[in-house]
Prior knowledge:
Strand content of chain B: 15-25%
Distance between the termini of chain B: 80 Å
Largest interface: A-B, 47 and 55 residues
CATH superfamily of the largest domain in chain B: FAD/NAD(P)-binding domain
Number of helices of chain A: 18
Shape of chain B: globular
Number of domains of chain B: 7
Strand order of the largest sheet of chain B: 5-2-1-15-26
Structural class of chain A: mainly alpha
Number of strands of chain A: 1
CATH class of the largest domain in chain B: Alpha Beta
Low-confidence stretches of chain A: 1-7
Mean pLDDT of chain A: 86
Helix content of chain B: 25-40%
Number of strands of chain B: 54
Strand content of chain A: under 5%
Number of domains of chain A: 2
Oligomer: heterodimer
Mean pLDDT of chain B: 92
Distance between the termini of chain A: 37 Å
Low-confidence stretches of chain B: 1028-1039
Amino acid sequence: xxxxxxSSKKALTVKPEFFSTIKKFGAFDVSACFSCGQCTVACPLxxxxxxxxxxxxxxxxxxxxxKLLSHPEPWLCYYCGDCSTxxxxxxxPGEFMMATRRYLTSRYDWTGLSKRFYLSHKWEFGSLIxxxxxxxxxxxxxxxxxxxxxxxxxxxxxxxxxxxWIHIADLILGGTLAILLLSNAFRMFYYIILNDKSVKVxxxxxxxxxxxxxxxxxSLVTQFKWxxxxxxxxWIKHLFLVSGYITIFSLVVVFIDIFQVDDTRWxxxxxxxxxxxxxxxxxxxxxxxxxxxxxxxxxxxxxxSDWLFLILLFLTAFTGIFLHLFRLMxxxxxxxxxxxxxxxxxxxMLIIEVPFGKWSHMLYRPLAIYFATVKAKARMLTAx
Amino acid sequence: xxxxxxxxSVAIIGGGIAGIQSSxxxxxxxxxxxxxxxxxxxxxxxxxxxxxxxxxxxxMCILGPKLVDTERHxxxxxxxxxxxxxxxxxxxxxTLKYIKKARYVDEELCTGCGICEEKCPVWVEDDFxxxxxxKDKKGxxxxxxxxxxxxxxxxxxxxAYLQPDTCRYFQEGKCRIxxxxxxxxxxxxxxxxxxxxxxxxxxxxxTGFDPFDAKEIDRLHFGDYPNVFTTLQFERLLNASGPxxxxxxxxxxxxxxxxxxxxxxxxxxxxxxxxxxxxxACCMYAIKEAIMAKEHxxxxxxxxxxxxxxxxxxxxxxxxxxxxxxxxxKFINSRAYEIEENPETHNLLLKYEQFMDSPSIVxxxxxxxxxxxxxxxxxxxxxxxxxxxxxxxxxxxxxTDPIKPxxxxxxxxxxxxxxxxxxxxxxxxxxASGAAGKAAILLKDVRGSEIEEKKYPRAINVxxxxxxxxxxxxxxxxxxxxxxxxxKKVTEYAKTFPNVKFSDDPMYACAADTQLLIKEKIKxxxxxxxxxxxxxxxxxxxLFRSTLKxxxxxxxxxxxxxxxxxxxxxxxxxxxxxxxxxxxxxxGAIARTCRLEPLLKEKIPIEQKAVVVGGxxxxxxxxxxxxxxxxPVYLIEKEDQLGGExxxxxxxxxxxxxxxxxxxxxxxVNEEENITLYTGANLESLSGAVxxxxxxxxxxxxxxxxxxxxxxxxxxxxxxYYQYGxxxxxxxxxxxxxxxxxxxxxxxxxxxCVGSREDxxxxxxxxxxxxxxxxxxxxxxxxxxxxxxxxxxxxxxxTYGDLEELYLKSRQLGTVYIGYNDDNKPIVHSxxxxxxxxxxxxxxxxxxxxxxxxxxxxxxxxxxxxxxxLFKVPIxxxxxxxxxxVKLRPIxxxxxxxxxxGTAQYPxxxxxxxxxASGAAARVMALLAPGYLLSEGAISVVKEEMCxxxxxxxxxxxxxxxxxxxxxxxxxxxxxxxVKAFVNPGVCKxxxxxxxICPVSAIIISHFQNETIEAQVDAILLKSEPTGGENxxxxxxxx
Lengths: 384, 1039
C-alpha cells in the first residue's frame, strides 16, 4: 500500500454533525451534492480565489467550521439561482448560500440574539411584539407626561411627536444599531482574517486596499455586481428597493426636521417620500407574490424571516402612506394612531432586522468584498 | 377457457444488436423468427459506431457478419421498415399487427446497386451520419444522403427506400429519374403502407434507445455552434465510411482540431432535466473516441470532463488506464456549465472548476467539443406500453423484476438490451441470448413447427477426373462493375478457355432471374462447375451455393471472383487496366475451379444433454432453463449445498434476500426432472469435444454435448490492507453485512477499491459491484440510525444505470463521500483514526475514532485452472474465464460447446448473473437443438502416413479441434504404438493454421489445397496455362 501523502497540510478533523447546524438555517438539501463543480462555474460572480458555492458546500458537509467562517464568499453571492436551477443533484446550492449567510449573521452577532431570532419563532415574534409594545408605552408615557400632546383641531405631528424627541430617539436607535453592527463587523473580520492561520495580512494592506471598500460601498448602493447575473430584473428591482429604503431612512433619521412637517406644502421631501413609499410597497408586494407563487428560483424557499421582513416592510410603507393621507385629510386622531402604529412596525423591524437579521447584509457584503481583496493581496504577497 | 394452440414462431421488435442476437439464437433452434425493424435496415445503433471498446474492434467488422447471417438465415424473416401497431392474444399465441411502410422500391427486385441514389437530384438529411453534411467539389454545403438511397453500404436488406415528403416526383409531379435509371425495374411509386399481421408464440422487445437530444440544454448551444458535436456524430467523423471519410474536421472551417473536449453526463445523472439514471456506456465510449482521435492525429489533446469514470465492465478499467498512460488523455474531474463560442475563430470556451489547483476557475479554449449524450428510452416504448401493455419504470424503460430480468409484466413478452435500461453491448448480447432462451422454453413443444427445411435434389456425382465444364457469369452489378470493367470483354475472354463451356454477363448475378438462368445453363450445357465474377463471397457466396444445390451440383464446385471490391471500386480511374486485372483474376479462378472437388458437410450426431458446473444462482438458473427447454442437465456443485455466494449476502441492493432467492431456486431445481444433481462433487475427468463430451463425476460416467461453466467468484480477503486483521474495527463489507443486526455503529468509514483497480495484475480490474454494496450499506445504516455518520472514501462511484438512484438516496440520507486517488491513499492509523486527502477539496482530512472501518474488496475468481485444462478454455490475466470475444460473444468460449455464466466471467450483480445464465442456456439449446453438428466441409484433413505426432497443430488450433490420438500400427513383424493428429470434423472451422504450422505437410485443407492455390496464383501470374485435370488439352493463351 502506497500511503505517502503529497500534501504537507495538517489534517483537518471532520465533524459531520456541524452540517445539521447549518441545515437549520434554511430549506435546502445539499446532502445530495456530488461535488461536480457545475454550480461554481454557473455562477457569474464566482471567480478564481473566491470560488463558490461548491467549496463551501464541501466545508459544510465535512464540518470544517473554521474554514467556512474564514470565507467571505457567502456574501459575494447575490442568489440569482442559476446554480440551483442547473444543479444536477437539485441540491439547491443557492439556498445553501442563503442559509449560510443566515448562519454567519448569527455567528457574527455576539449577543446570540440573531441565532435565536432565526431559529425560534417565539423569540422572533416575541421580540417584535415586545419592542412594539415598548414604543406604544413610550408614547403613552409621553402623552401622560405631556411631552406629547394630541391637537384635536388640526393635525400637528410635531406636537404629538416633537422632532427633538424623535431626534433623540433616532440617535439612541442609530447608536445602538451602529455599536451592534460594528462589533459584529469586527467578529466577521476576526473569523475571515485574524482566525485564518493560512494567511497573514500586513497592516498596510488595509489602507492600500481601502479603495475596494469604497467600491464595495458603491456596489451596496448600485448593486452593480448583481448586474452580472443573467436575471437583470432582479437587479433593477433590488436597486429600486434599496434606493427607496435609503431615501426614506435618510429622511427619517437625518432629515426629520424637514421631512416631518405639519403643513400641506409640497417640496422635494414629499416627492422623495412618495418615491420611497412606492419602492417599498411595490417591491414588497411583488416579492411576496413571487415567494407565494415560487416564481423565481430565489423565491422557491422562504424562511419565516423572509416573510416577516417583507410583511414588515410592506406594513411600514402602507402605514406611512396612510399616515400621510390622514394628515393631508386632517383626520387628527387617526393620524396619531397610525403614527404610533407606523413606529411600532418600523422600529422593531429596524432593531431586529438591521443588526440581527437580513438587513445586516448591507454591512457584510461590502466588508466581505474588502476582506476578500485584502486577503487575496496578502496571499499574492506571500507567494511572491 | 381452453389454452390457445402454441405457435412455434417469435416476433422480435427491434433489429439492433439485441434483436439480431435473439433472432439468431432462436432461428438456430428451429423457431421461425420475424425480425421487425422500424428503419430501412437492421443493425440499430451499433452500425453507426466506428470502433468498440475495450478491444477497439471495428464495429461494422464484427457486426457485419451477424447482419449477413441474419439476412441469410432460412428461419428468419426480416420485416424491415415495419412498425408494430397492435398485439392481441396471449402467451403462446399472439397476433401482431404491423405496418409495412412503403419504400417505393420493390424489395424483391432491388439489387442494391445504388444507381438510383447516384442519379437522384435531391439531398436530404442523413440520419445514419447523424445529420452531418459534406461539401461537394465546389465547396458547397450539401446534405449527406440522397432522397432515394440505401441507408448505408452494409445495410441489410440492401434495398433502397424513397421518402415521398422530399421526393421531387411526389411533390412536384415530375422527375422519375430513379425509375428511368433502375435497370432492375424496382422503383414503384404506387406502393402504399400496408397493414399486415403475423401469428407468433412469443414476442421479444428490443427497442433500444434514442440518444438524448442535446438541444434540450440551451447553454450547450448544440446545433448553434458548428464545432459542438455529439458522440454519435463524432463516431461518424472518425469512421472511414462517414461523411468526411474518416477525417476529423471542424464544421466551421474544415480544419483539424487540436484540442478536443468531451463533456460527460449530457442527459444523464442530471435531475435538473429529470434524468436520474446513469447511461452506463458514455464514459467508455468517450474514452474510446478520445483514443481514436489521438490515433487519427497524435497531436490532438483530448480532455474528458467527468464526474466519475464508470469503467466497470471487463477490460474497461485497463482501457481507462491505457487512455491515461499510453494515450495521455486528460481526465478532468469537473462538470462544465456552458459552452461559449469565440465568434471569430469558432473556438469554444469551457469554464470549469479545478478542485485542487490554483487558480481554480479555469477557462479552456477548445477547437471542438463533443457531448457524451446519454440514452433516452426509445420512442417505441410508448407503443410497448400502450399496445403491448408492458409496465414501464419511472424512467420510461421496460420494467423488469430483478430475479426475472428478461421477463416483462406480460407473460410471453420478453425484453432485452437497452429497452429495459441503459447497458453496454456485451450485457445487451448476453441478455438477448437470454430472451431467446426464455421464448424457446415457452415454445419448446412447437419447435420446428413453423419452419420448413429446404429439400435439395441429390447432387450429381462429379469425379475429380471428369472433364471440367465451367459456366462463367460476369456480373455488371448495375454500373458498379460495368462502369469500370469491360464486362463484355471479360465474358468473351472467358470463352477462350476450353473448359469454359458457357459464359454470360447478367446485369445482376444475384437477382432471382439470374439464379434461374444459372440453373438452366447447368442443365443445358451439362456444366459441373460455376464461376460468378461479381462481388464479395462474404455476402453472396451462400446464395450461389444454394443455387448450385438446387441445380443438383455440389456446393463446393463454385468459385466467386470479386470484381467489385477488388477491382471496380478500387480502380475507378484505370478502366483499361481494371479490365486486364479482371481477366487475370478470372484466369486464376478458372485454374482453381478446374481443381475443385465436391465436399460433403458431414452431420455428426451429438449427445443432447448438458453439464452445468457450479450450483450458485447462475448455475442453477442456467440448469433450470436448459432443463425446461427439454434437455437433460447434469448440475455439478463442489459444495454440499447449492447456492454459492448468494447465500452469504443477507440483503441485496434491491432489498431482496440472498437466502430467499437461493431457497426458491433450490426448490425448483429439486423439482425439475430433467436435472441430475451432484453436490459435493467435481468433474474428475473429461474427454471428447463439442457435441460428444464424456466426463466422470463421482466415479460415474456422463455423456453430454455442451457445458456451462458457472463456478462463481468469492470476496477477496484484504490481508495486509488498512489494518485488516490487526484492528477488530476493520472488516470487509461482507463481514459487516453478516453481522449487521448485531452492530449499531455511530461512525463508519468505508474504503472503496481495496485490492481492486491496482497497478499490478491480477487485480487491475474494477469489481463492478462494490460501489453499490457500499452505497447499499450506507443506506441501511442511515435508515436504521439517521444520526450515524457514514463516510465513503472512493476513487469513482460506479453506480451505473438505475443504481445511480441508490447513490442519490445515500447522499440525500447524509452519507459523506470523499474522493481520493492512488497518489494519496487513505491511511488507517493504529488508533483507528482515518486520514484521507480529499481530492475535491485539496485538504487532508481526519476522521477520528470511527467504530467501524469497512473495506470494499473485489470479487476474485475461484481457482479455475483445473476446469480450464479439462475444457481447454482460457483464463484471462485477471484469472477470470476468458470469453470468445468480450463484445459480441460474452457467454461463449472460443472452444465450441463450452459456455460461461455468472461471476466466473467477471464480477456482476445477481440479476446480471441470472440473465447471463439464461443466455448461456439459450446458447446451449441452440447447439443441442438440431441433434447433430454440421461440419464445415472445407476442413483440415490429416494424412496419417506422414504425421509424426509432434503436436504443433494441436497447440496452434484456436478451436481446439485437433487432438493427438494414440494409434497402433501393425507392421509385418510387430505392432508399434504411435501418436497421430486427429481432426474433429465437428469442431474444425477450416482456418488452415495447422496446415501452415505442420513441419512435414501432413495436414491439408480441403477446398484450399496447396496445388489448387498454386495453380490459381500461377495462372494469375501467367506462369502456367489455366487448365486442369489430367485429360485437358493445354489451351492457347488468349490475346
